[in-house]
Design brief:
Blueprint: H1 14-17, H2 27-31, H3 57-63, E1 74-80, E2 83-91, E3 97-105, H4 106-113, E4 118-119, H5 120-145, H6 147-171, E5 174-177, E6 181-184, H7 186-193, H8 198-211, H9 215-229, E7 231-232, E8 238-239, E9 242-243, H10 250-256, E10 258-259, H11 261-272, E11 280-285, E12 288-294, E13 303-306, E14 309-314, H12 329-335, E15 342-345
Parallel strand pairs: 7-10
Antiparallel strand pairs: 1-2, 2-3, 4-9, 5-6, 8-9, 11-12, 11-15, 12-14, 13-14
């Protein structure tokens, strides 16, 4: 994991502020319901080479030692009539060949992208406001009540600055963490994208109804697409002047055709979040990110416990074709490592 600290003077008051049962056929549609200039901490970056894609050896360790990408996987990203479109062909775990489509109109897509990442000028403007507000607050409080009151007024300004900073970051899919570090806020990103990806989830529902898929087949279908049809590639940390946190938002992942482990996790969770009863958590380990689904583990399944319940691990990264409950050796070692893992409930 790589990161850089925002200057500590910007956070004088930091301490004070931190005080399933599913039914096939026609019932599928009814079940689609979405739930009501600083540095970055970049989690889930398995390689420093942004151009590494499916051949990235280190990421292969998170999924499988042997390449097992299924034949029959393909993608087509194109523009048609003012709409950006993506078409994916892949093979489900039950060997069904599947094709799905996703699209967004260009103005809608541009507005969507503007909701992720921040520019240096935005933080500079916020800092400029703080300095001006500090000066005014000190002058007024000192003249009226002396030095102690002026110091309290400065602290109030700093608290307001941090409130505004956190709000800005949250609005862009980011979060300020302990140690003045900024990282992608996966639960926020997932919740925000459930409704956006509802058309794709409905497409999977129709396929499941037509082919009489079980719940396991449905989850496997979405997972297979994310693992094998979305290419593995690490996003840049800064793109077009925006600090992104090294993650592509889900709709962009679909319309670009690539992403890394946390990017793919966000996509998978945002699609699956459209079905009632699915409970998911993100799993952050040093240098890697994956997720887990609430269900009783089968024999040999790798799982974690959260609030007394078992969650079966899922590896969205690919390009290997791994069932829920199966993870690579590197992930197993990280989960058992001295740093442990962090659980982030998505809903």
């Amino acid at each position: 994991m790589r990161g850089a600290r925002l200057h500590p003077l910007y956070f004088l008051a930091l301490a004070a502020c931190l005080a399933s049962a599913w039914t096939l056929g026609r019932e599928w549609e009814a079940l689609m319901a979405p739930p009501a200039g600083g540095g970055m901490l970049l989690r889930a970056q398995s390689s420093g080479d942004e151009e590494e894609e499916d051949e990235d050896a280190e990421e292969q360790e998170y999924t499988s030692r042997a390449k097992h990408t299924e034949k029959g996987t393909a993608q087509r990203i194109y523009k048609e009539g003012g709409e950006l479109k993506a078409q994916y062909h892949f093979i489900n775990f039950n060997k069904d060949r599947v094709s799905v489509n996703f699209g967004m109109k260009e103005p809608e897509y541009r507005k969507y992208l503007a909701g992720y990442g921040y520019a240096d000028f935005e933080l500079s403007g916020l800092r400029a406001w703080r300095e001006t507000a500090r000066g005014a607050a000190w002058k007024k409080a000192y003249a009226e009540s002396g030095k102690a009151a002026a110091e309290r007024a400065i602290a109030d300004v700093d608290m307001e600055y941090e409130t505004r900073l956190r709000a800005l970051l949250r609005a862009r899919g980011l979060a300020l963490r302990a140690g003045n570090l900024v990282e992608c806020d996966m639960p926020v990103i997932v919740k925000r994208n459930v409704e956006m990806l509802k058309p794709l989830a409905l497409a999977f529902s129709r396929i499941a109804a037509e082919r009489r898929w079980s719940e396991e087949n449905l989850i496997g279908g979405v997972l297979s697409m994310v693992q094998t049809a979305i290419r593995y590639k690490i996003p840049p940390t800064v793109e077009d002047g925006l600090h992104t946190g090294g993650l592509l938002p889900p709709a962009r992942t679909l319309l670009s055709g690539w992403g890394d482990c946390d990017t793919k996790t966000g996509l998978l969770a945002s699609i699956l979040g459209n079905w009632k009863g699915i409970r998911m958590v993100g799993i952050a380990v040093p240098g890697h990110y994956l997720m887990a689904i609430r269900r009783l583990p089968g024999k040999g399944d790798v799982f974690v416990r959260y609030e007394g319940l078992e969650y079966v691990l899922v590896e969205p990264a690919g390009p290997a074709w791994l069932d829920p409950g199966t993870v690579g050796q590197a992930t197993t070692a990280l989960l058992a490592g001295k740093d442990g893992y962090k659980v982030e409930p998505f809903f």
